[in-house]
Fold this sequence. Notes:
Layout: H1 11-30, H2 34-41, H3 45-58, H4 76-88, H5 103-114, H6 120-129, H7 146-161
Amino acid sequence: MRYARRGGYTPVEEEKRKLLRLEAAERFEHGDEATVIAADLRVTERTVRRWRKAWREGGIAALTSKGPVSRERQSVREWDRLEAELKRGPLTHGFSDDQRWTLGRIKTLTGRLFHKGYTVHEVAKLLKRHGWSCQVPVRHAVEFDEEAIETWKDEVWPRLKGQRLTWAPTSAPRTRRARD
Length: 180
C-alpha cells in the first residue's frame, strides 16, 4: 500500500500502520464486516475495502508498505548535514539581510552543499517529509510601511471603531401575555 499523506510516514508511524493492516487481515479471515473493522481500527470504510481487495488479490504480502510515493534524492547522512546547517542559521551561509530561511535560500544551500539541483517545490516536499514547515513569506509588499500601519492603528482605527454602546438590542421579539 502507498500513503501519500504529508509526504510519507515516519518509521514509528509506518510500524503502527503496518500493524493495523495485519490486524485487518486477521479480521478478513474471520469474515468481519468492513464497517466493524473500520470502527475498531479507527480508519475509514474505504480504506478497509481497499485493504480487503489487496488482501484477496495477493494475501498478507499485498498489505505490506511499498514505501513512499517518490524516492528521496537525499541520503540520511545528507539530510542530517542539511538539518545541522539549517539550525546554524542563514547568516552563517551569507544571507545577511534577515534571519529567516526561505525555500529559495534552502534551495541555494542544498545546491552549494550537495551539488544537487532542487526546485522550490521539491525543497518544500523535502522539508515537509522531515517535519519542517514553511511559515514566513519570501518578501513584503513594496507598499509595506510599518510606521504608517502603527499610525493608522493608533489614530484612524479608534475613530472608525467609535464608542462602544452600553446597550445593545437583542434578537428576541417582544412577547405578549397569553390569551385566556
